# Entry
Amino acid sequence: MTQQRVLRAAVAQFLEKGYTGTTTADITGAAGIAQSAFFHVFPSKEALLLELVRRMFGGQFDLAGQHSGAAAPVFLYAVETALSLSIATAQRKARILT
# Structure
């Protein structure tokens, strides 16, 4: 349950402040938990981001890897495209909110 709260709070903070502008203190404040609880769930902000990416694109990465092999350019292109589309969508939504 704490992991879900942290992930949801992180997404909201990343959309509002951007990844680099968001601190773990921002995330824990938004989640309503102590900073120590964050580090029990994730070892770092980077690990949290990797988990978000894994959850958002895990299916696409698995499918691309099955069809091309993880080192193939098609797989890398699929990863890059998925991330670019997600970032563009998130930025568009953030602009609408402001």
